Fold this protein.
Amino acid sequence: MKDKVIDITAYIGRDLKSRIAVREFRDKISNEQRTTVKIDFGNVSFASRSFMDEFYNIFIANADMNVELINLSAEIEVMLDAVKSTQHRSPKIANKLSSNDYDIKFSSISEANKYLEALPFS
């Protein structure tokens, strides 16, 4: 089957701003049951970072769908590259951040309040 070219502005408009719009767009495409699509950004005026982050996670990083982006402006390419660069955290850093070494447990709210009140703030 020939790849379908989808003009994203026909579904969302020229200004791509919200994460919700990405999810609604995905739902519309999913209803067509296509696994390969070309998404045309030719008529897009603006794309926010939050939109592109959600778009990346739902479409680009999704192994279930083969997506090709066409007619990206230089500004949108820069935004997409910025989003891509924040998606892959070093495993060493991720392990450190998820470590339980920094967890503090309290048996009551008053115990937590006492701990917080004792912290030195300069």
Q: What stands out?
A: The beta strands are 4-7, 15-16, 36-40, 46-47, 66-70. The longest strand covers residues 36-40. Residues 111 and 117 are 10 Å apart (CA to CA).
